């Protein structure tokens, strides 16, 4: 090969000089992102960044021509300049919502976190944090940043000299600390110190972001302790004392409010003059938001009420209830509610007219204000004088109206307040006269447990009045009350049982609740280890007391205090009750027609028995019952006594299995014991009715053997073999009579 050919060959191996890239088409630039030439990549990324910075439409255009995926790869390029320009382009594009949503699917977060290392320059830090700040608004991305250990490098960047890096890092932290785990992590990784340092920043936006982060962090006890140890309070007080920082005062007060959750902090703040400074913000005219946040500090520090009382806080709060700003009013009501847990403040608020002003707030159109005012009244009315004040200014009428409010907390608070007030008889009747029983029906249908608890408690208390019970039944309150016996909320169930106890005092509502299945539900409750409570058995007893027929059928026992009246019937043991009850209802004219005979028997019993002494009264009554039902029958001839034939004839004649007791002329144990109990109850004698085996029955009485006897003795009354004989309980003769 000649020299000329060799030289031409060598020349052909040399590279071209760099070619300028000139294009106005985004798609063309994006194609260049696939180049292997670093210079091309540098210029392409720079061009994309410049184009993206011109507006959102350009960012979307770049996304639509496929710029995201290659950029996400190039940000990890080995060339520093390529890497920097690529992250600038990606960071700029990420501020667009559509681009941000697409980025979430590209798993770019680990690569972005890598760019936060100390080896990268400040520009890379700025745009990496910008991109992460955009992504961290999303909960899934927020979790990925946390799980990828993104918090430690972000916290380190709080100390960056670049304000944009600081701002972006604060935004990332603010988004992450919405979650409890991230709040703990910021504390554990030493984030408190650099955060407090940034309060000195010359940039208001950075100061405001720091305060918003601290508002979240100081919700946790450990962080609050660290905040105090790092002189956080002192730094906040410096801001509060500087009017040049007035735009920060509202956020600062929210942090102070968070920290006033323990007495140590409160006393420390009082000693440092911080509490007085907070009071200044309440007393002095200022924007409503600052007013409200200062009042929140009072609410949080209410556990140290004595200290607040010394500062005359109650007077200030009462005045603020009249301020024409709903947000200030709401915050004030919360503070009053918190301080009203202490008796001294309860008295002071009343003396200063605060109770009456809270009642006025219940007329507000603001649902939030009514909720806050009702909470304050609920706490205040634990004091009887405050309850009377609410009543005297007509607060009970407003509270009754709020039982139908759309806000669950207002309903619960109103029911609680009415319950507190109803403990006084005078107020109770006033409340009842304004339709509270009807108003309580709807809350009993609620699914909110606090509404149910408070409404049931109120109902149980108001049910002391017979007219209130009638009104409650008339208003349709029994079905929702009985339905609550199905509740699996332990406290709701207990209070429902207590309310049943109160309502079942009257026969009519008791019978209605029985028809609604209350007795079966109570039996289920009492059989359940998990559901039975101290009121469930009382409710069963109360229901049965007004349904003696049911009680006798279920328990086989009527006490001396269970007074048989017209309408009682013996349905036998529980298995026959439903059938006999239906038959009895179908044949109710029968009892009315034949009632004349029973009334004559009662009249005769009174005339011949009441003049006698105690023992002779029982003896004579036993003989009267025996004579009425066929006389004495020897035990050996009992099987010859035609009582069954007689009963069959009566049932055939009446066309019913229900036979009025006064028509029976031949009977043995069960019918005689029932008649004895019925007559004894009507003439004022005391006895029980006890069912024995084979549907037989007997009566127990209690007598003193003599006027000097220290204790009475219990006897079984013989009504059939030797009528009038009193058999001492647990003796052989008594046991024999019971088991025959």
Explain this structure to me?
With 740 residues, this protein is mainly α. Helix content is 64%, strand content 3%. The chain is built from 46 helices and 6 strands. It has a 3-stranded antiparallel sheet, with helices on one face. A 3-stranded antiparallel sheet has the order 4-5-6. A hairpin with a 5-residue loop joins β2 and β3 (697-698). Mean pLDDT is 88; it is low at 1-13 and 590-594. ARM repeats lie at residues 149-191, 190-232, 353-395. Residues 590-726 form the EDR1/CTR1/ARMC3-like peptidase-like domain. InterPro entries: ARM-like (IPR011989), ARM-type_fold (IPR016024), Armadillo (IPR000225), Armadillo-Ser/Thr_Kinase (IPR052441), EDR1/CTR1/ARMC3-like_pept-like (IPR055164).
Main beta sheet, described? Answer: 3 strands, antiparallel
**Per the principal axes of the C-alpha atoms, what is the gross shape?**
elongated
Strand order of the main beta sheet, please? 1-2-3
Proportion of residues in extended strands: under 5%
Amino- and carboxy-terminal Cα gap? 142 Å
Task: Return the structural class.
Answer: mainly alpha
What brief labels describe this structure?
740 residues; mainly alpha; three-stranded antiparallel sheet; 46 helices; 6 strands; elongated; disordered N terminus; repeat; EDR1/CTR1/ARMC3-like peptidase-like domain-containing protein
Short description:
This is EDR1/CTR1/ARMC3-like peptidase-like domain-containing protein. The protein is an all-alpha fold and 740 residues long. Helices cover 64% and strands 3% of the residues.
């Amino acid at each position: 090969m000649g020299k000329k050919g060799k030289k031409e060959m060598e020349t052909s191996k040399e590279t071209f000089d760099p070619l300028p890239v000139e294009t106005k088409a985004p798609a063309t630039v994006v194609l260049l992102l696939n180049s292997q030439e670093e210079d091309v990549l540098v210029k392409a990324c720079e061009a994309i960044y410049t184009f993206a910075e011109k507006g959102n439409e350009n960012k979307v255009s770049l996304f639509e021509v496929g710029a995201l995926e290659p950029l996400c790869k190039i940000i990890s390029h080995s060339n520093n300049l390529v890497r920097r320009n690529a992250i600038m382009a990606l960071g700029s594009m990420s501020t667009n919502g559509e681009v941000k949503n697409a980025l979430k699917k590209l798993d770019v977060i680990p690569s972005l976190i890598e760019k936060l290392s100390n080896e990268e320059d400040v520009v890379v830090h700025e745009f990496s944090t910008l991109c992460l700040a955009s992504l961290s608004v999303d909960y899934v991305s927020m979790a990925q940043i946390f799980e990828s250990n993104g918090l430690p490098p972000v916290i380190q960047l709080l100390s960056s000299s670049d304000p944009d890096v600081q701002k972006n890092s604060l935004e990332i932290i603010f988004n992450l600390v919405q979650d409890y785990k991230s709040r703990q992590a910021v504390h554990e990784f030493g984030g408190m110190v650099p955060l407090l340092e940034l309060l000195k920043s010359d940039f208001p936006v950075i100061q405001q972001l720091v305060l918003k982060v601290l508002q979240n962090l100081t919700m946790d006890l450990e962080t609050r302790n660290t905040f105090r140890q790092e002189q956080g309070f002192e730094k906040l007080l410096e801001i509060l004392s500087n009017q040049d920082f007035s735009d920060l005062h509202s956020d600062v007060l929210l942090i102070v409010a968070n920290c006033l959750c323990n007495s140590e902090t409160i006393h420390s703040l009082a000693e440092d003059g911080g509490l007085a400074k907070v009071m200044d913000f309440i007393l002095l005219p200022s924007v409503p938001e600052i007013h409200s946040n200062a009042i929140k500090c009072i609410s949080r520090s209410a556990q140290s009420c004595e200290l607040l009382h010394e500062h005359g806080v109650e007077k200030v709060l009462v005045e603020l209830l009249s301020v024409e700003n709903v947000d200030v009013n709401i915050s004030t009501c919360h503070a009053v509610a918190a301080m009203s847990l202490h008796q001294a403040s309860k008295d002071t608020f009343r003396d200063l007219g605060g109770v009456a002003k809270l009642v006025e707030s219940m007329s507000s159109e603001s649902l939030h204000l009514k909720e806050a005012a009702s909470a304050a009244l609920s706490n205040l009315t634990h004091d009887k004088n405050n309850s009377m004040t609410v009543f005297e200014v007509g607060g009970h009428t407003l509270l009754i109206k709020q039982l139908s409010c759309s806000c669950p907390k207002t309903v619960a608070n109103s029911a609680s307040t009415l319950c507190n007030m109803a403990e006084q008889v005078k107020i109770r009747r006033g409340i009842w006269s304004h339709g509270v029983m009807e108003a309580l029906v709807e809350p009993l249908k609620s699914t909110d447990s606090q509404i149910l608890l408070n409404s049931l408690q109120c109902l149980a208390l108001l049910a002391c009045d017979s007219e209130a019970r009638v009104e409650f039944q008339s208003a349709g309150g029994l079905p929702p009350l009985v339905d609550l016996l199905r509740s699996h909320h332990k406290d709701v169930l207990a209070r429902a049982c207590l309310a049943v106890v109160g309502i079942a005092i009257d026969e009519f509502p008791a019978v209605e609740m029985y028809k609604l299945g209350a007795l079966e539900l109570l039996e289920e409750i009492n059989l359940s280890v998990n559901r039975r409570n101290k009121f469930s058995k009382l409710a069963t007893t109360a229901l049965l007391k007004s349904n003696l027929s049911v009680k006798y059928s279920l328990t086989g026992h009527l006490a001396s205090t269970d007074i048989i009246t017209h309408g009682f019937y013996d349905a036998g043991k529980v298995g026959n009750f439903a059938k006999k009850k239906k038959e009895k209802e179908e044949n109710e004219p029968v009892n009315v027609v034949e009632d004349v005979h029973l009334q004559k028997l009662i009249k005769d019993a009174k005339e011949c028995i009441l003049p006698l002494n105690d023992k002779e009264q029982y003896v004579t009554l036993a003989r009267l019952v025996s004579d009425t039902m066929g006389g004495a029958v020897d035990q050996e001839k009992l099987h010859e006594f035609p009582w069954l034939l007689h009963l069959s004839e009566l049932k055939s004649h009446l066309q019913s299995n229900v036979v009025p007791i006064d028509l029976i002329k031949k009977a043995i144990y069960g019918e005689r014991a029932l008649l004895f109990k019925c007559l004894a109850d009507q003439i004022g004698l005391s006895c029980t009715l006890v069912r024995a085996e084979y549907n037989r029955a007997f009566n127990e009485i209690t007598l003193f053997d003599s006027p000097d006897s220290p204790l009475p003795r219990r006897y079984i009354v013989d009504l059939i073999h030797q009528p009038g004989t009193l058999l001492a309980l647990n003796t052989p003769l008594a046991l024999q009579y019971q088991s025959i």
